[in-house]
Automatic annotation (TrEMBL):
<dbReference type="InterPro" id="IPR002469">
    <property type="entry name" value="Peptidase_S9B_N"/>
</dbReference>
<dbReference type="GO" id="GO:0006508">
    <property type="term" value="P:proteolysis"/>
</dbReference>
<feature type="domain" description="Peptidase S9 prolyl oligopeptidase catalytic">
    <location>
        <begin position="504"/>
        <end position="714"/>
    </location>
</feature>
<feature type="domain" description="Dipeptidylpeptidase IV N-terminal">
    <location>
        <begin position="90"/>
        <end position="417"/>
    </location>
</feature>
<dbReference type="InterPro" id="IPR029058">
    <property type="entry name" value="AB_hydrolase_fold"/>
</dbReference>
<dbReference type="InterPro" id="IPR001375">
    <property type="entry name" value="Peptidase_S9_cat"/>
</dbReference>
<dbReference type="InterPro" id="IPR050278">
    <property type="entry name" value="Serine_Prot_S9B/DPPIV"/>
</dbReference>
<dbReference type="GO" id="GO:0008236">
    <property type="term" value="F:serine-type peptidase activity"/>
</dbReference>
<dbReference type="Pfam" id="PF00930">
    <property type="entry name" value="DPPIV_N"/>
</dbReference>
<protein>
    <recommendedName>
        <fullName>Peptidase S9 prolyl oligopeptidase catalytic domain-containing protein</fullName>
    </recommendedName>
</protein>
<dbReference type="Pfam" id="PF00326">
    <property type="entry name" value="Peptidase_S9"/>
</dbReference>
Length: 726
């Protein structure tokens, strides 16, 4: 009897061991369920002692909440005495925006809201509900404050209120003659057609704006005396920021002057100008031209006109790094550099004109990961540069209204957040919260592996993160999964602060994969030359760097199986993952590509024309030495996935939402058409009535992705019809 029990124990052990090593002919429901334990929704509950709310009351009090294991406690700090006390009654978290309607833009004094009705701009008095029409000649495709960039649109207005809430800087969008995009619903009966203006690279007509200033009190419209601007900004592929704020515009204090930047269609030129709000006269201040594209910051704009001192601060990457420069507004000449070195300013956060001091975030100046964000201050003349947050990690900053104090919350990919209250000199006042990963680890959390390898040039340092199974064994072999988002406006990782789970990376690792994600050359946050690596060749997608990163990592982590490599991504990552299978068929074996912009001629004009350049016809050299132009060949051919389908050898799952109004489904269907004509086998997944994200079908897409990798990289049968919704 004892012998039988002993044999049963041995058999049970090997059965368990085999399941964890994924050596069976199939995976079962329990394997998938075990993997889902590594989702953020299942791990966040094990992260304690974290700051989850903070509010400043002028420069007098700081209110904040800390989440503990058993409860969330509310605190108050008297900033004059540094005395901390527990709050019995929680602070109200109401917002002034609660008074406005969804598609309205609130004025700085909180008394008015601006909105669009019948293509014209109106304001509403929030106290009396009185509505006043400001413009009267707006019409379809030629309306005021219109928020439509093709790839994104909103019913709310795009504008910039003056500080005194008495003027509005906005525009009349000229979309007349701009091409349209069409989508149809899937339903019983007649489908509903969705049509809207959506410019593409190479179009003769794209969105233009006629800049205007509206005087609320006099109801007077001042049209700026200048040509139409292309609808372009210096930081993104739209002119509307959060809430509809008009980007690249800045008022002086009394609203008599408006500074703004006009960008060329190809983003190569940025032109700083100042308009008189009464006359509409426009003065040229400064122009910068770049060989590729000009950007005024990593995420947000870093230029500022200092009207009171007749100066302006300009951001430039002209020396290969993003830095700040001080210019004289009258002479328009450079006074001095403010920052310099082989690192970059990320965000100009505060300008103290009295102390002539700037406070900004930057990356790459401190030792370690160049993507870690630190806070600095410096004098206008470039002296007195000081790091205010030397604690190792990436810092998120929340300042008091006048910047006498700030809270920094810092962390790394493996070290949970710590929050500290400091004064503006960076001196610590008190620690607000300090978390650790002990409870997470007791519940199965695995630390990601942050790595650094060399880029394709064998010189440049690349950074990324890797996830391995909790049962990783150097004597085993695990297929590799490469997550990719190529940018160029962001990278695959970008943020190296602490999160309990990044997407489904660790969950996939628990199924027996090694996950690799790397910030390749061609993405931001480093030097200008780093970012520009594949300008004019978006088909590059940073893939050479992803490949060399995986190869280098496999030399250290011997269990990585280079003979089985998969890749996946969404949107730009969908474009890149399909390109990986077609451009490097001997390295990548399987790809799952969702909602990809597979040929940027079918995606919005601002995107391709910034990162790839204006569309031009190719001149081909003929045999007699003459140059002929072939109208069917363009400089965009080099990036088009459908032109490479003959190279397909691996397994491809390609997906798209049929109501995707960001990346229209034609981007995927042209690849599908080419694959069919090339007699290639592939898997296609279409989501009727779904946008760029798949909403309530996102879990279905994730399950199909898991199944595809398990089947084609591990050679195992996945559990049938597993649901993440249970």
């Amino acid at each position: 009897m004892k012998k039988i029990i002993y044999l049963l124990i041995i058999l049970s052990f090997f059965s368990f061991y085999s399941c964890n090593q994924n050596n069976d002919a199939s995976l079962d429901v329990k394997d998938y369920e075990n993997a889902t334990k590594h989702f953020s929704k299942n791990l966040n509950k094990h992260l304690f002692n974290i700051l989850n709310y903070q509010k400043w009351e002028n420069e007098d009090f700081l209110y904040y909440d800390v989440k503990y294991e058993e409860k969330t406690e509310s605190y108050q700090i008297n900033l004059k005495t540094n005395e901390k006390s527990i709050l019995k009654e929680k602070q109200s978290k109401s917002s002034p925006y609660s008074k406005r309607n969804r598609n309205e833009f609130l004025s700085p004094n909180g008394k008015l809201s601006a909105y669009i009705e019948n293509y014209n701009l109106w304001v509403r008095n929030l106290s009396t509900n009185k509505k006043t029409q400001l413009t009267f000649d707006g019409k379809e495709d030629y309306g005021y404050a219109t928020n439509n960039a093709g790839w994104t649109k909103s019913k709310g207005p795009v504008l910039k209120w003056s500080p005194k809430s008495d003027k509005i800087a906005t525009f009349r969008q000229d979309a007349r003659g701009v091409g349209e995009m069409y989508l149809t619903t899937t339903n019983v009966g007649h489908p509903i057609l969705q049509a809207w203006k959506y410019a593409l690279p190479g179009d003769d007509k794209i969105f233009e704006i006629e800049r205007i200033i509206v005087d609320i009190k006099s109801n007077n419209i001042v049209r700026l005396k200048m040509k139409n601007d292309f609808q372009r900004s210096t930081t993104t592929d739209h002119i509307a920021g959060r809430g509809g704020e008009l980007l690249d515009t800045q008022w002086n204090k009394d609203g008599s002057k408006l500074a703004f930047i006009s960008s060329s269609r190809d983003h190569k030129e940025a032109h700083l100008q100042i308009a008189d709000s009464k006359t509409g006269n426009v003065s040229s201040i400064f122009k910068e031209n770049a060989e590729t594209y000009y950007e005024s910051g990593v995420r947000g704009e870093n230029w500022e006109v200092l009207f009171d001192s007749d100066e302006y601060i300009w951001y430039s990457e002209k020396d290969n790094w993003g830095h700040l420069y001080l210019y004289d507004l009258k002479t328009k000449k450079l006074k001095n550099r403010i920052t310099e070195g082989e690192w970059l300013v990320r965000k100009l956060m505060h300008i103290d004109t009295e102390k002539r001091e700037l406070i900004f975030t930057a990356g790459g100046r401190e030792n370690g990961n160049p993507y870690h964000v630190y806070l600095y201050k410096v004098n206008f003349d470039g002296t007195g540069l000081k790091c205010l947050t030397p604690e190792k990690g990436s810092h998120s900053i929340s300042p008091s209204p006048n910047w006498n104090y700030f809270v920094t919350t810092y962390s790394t990919t493996s070290n949970p957040p710590v929050s500290i209250l400091k004064n503006r000199n960076g001196e610590k006042i008190t620690e607000l919260s300090s978390s650790n990963s002990s409870e997470l680890e007791r519940n199965g959390w695995q630390k990601p592996i942050e790595f650094s390898v060399k880029a394709r040039d064998n010189k440049t340092d690349l950074f990324g993160i890797m996830y391995i199974p909790s049962y990783y064994n150097e004597n085993e072999k695990y297929p590799i999964l490469n997550y990719i988002y190529p940018g160029p406006q962001s990278g695959s990782v970008g943020n190296y602060s602490f999160v309990v789970a990044r997407r489904d990376f660790q969950a996939l690792a628990e199924l027996g994969f090694v996950i690799v994600s790397v910030d390749a050359m061609g993405t931001p946050g480093r030097s200008k030359s780093f970012h520009d690596v594949y300008y004019g060749n978006m088909g590059d997608n940073g893939l050479p760097d992803n490949i060399t990163a995986i190869e280098q990592l496999s030399k250290k982590y011997k269990a990585m199986d280079l003979s089985r490599v998969g890749i996946w991504g969404h949107s730009g990552g969908g474009f890149a993952s399909t390109a990986a299978l077609l451009r490097y068929p001997d390295f990548y074996d399987v790809a799952v590509s969702s909602s990809g912009n597979h040929d940027n001629r079918n995606y919005e004009a601002d995107w391709g024309e910034k990162w790839h350049g204006l569309l031009t016809r190719l001149d081909l050299n003929s045999s007699d030495g003459k140059i002929d132009s072939d109208s069917t060949k363009t400089n965009y051919d080099i990036q088009a996935n459908q032109l490479l389908v003959e190279n397909l050898k691996g397994k491809l799952l390609i997906a798209h939402g049929m109501l995707d109004d960001n990346v229209p489904p034609s981007n995927t269907m042209i690849v599908v058409d080419a694959l069919i004509k090339a007699n290639k086998d592939f898997d296609l997944l279409l989501f009727p009535n779904k946008r760029h994200g798949y909403g309530d079908l996102s879990n279905y897409m994730m399950r199909r992705k898991w199944d595809f990798f398990v089947k084609h990289l591990k050679g195992l049968d996945p559990p049938k019809n597993f649901s993440f919704n249970n």
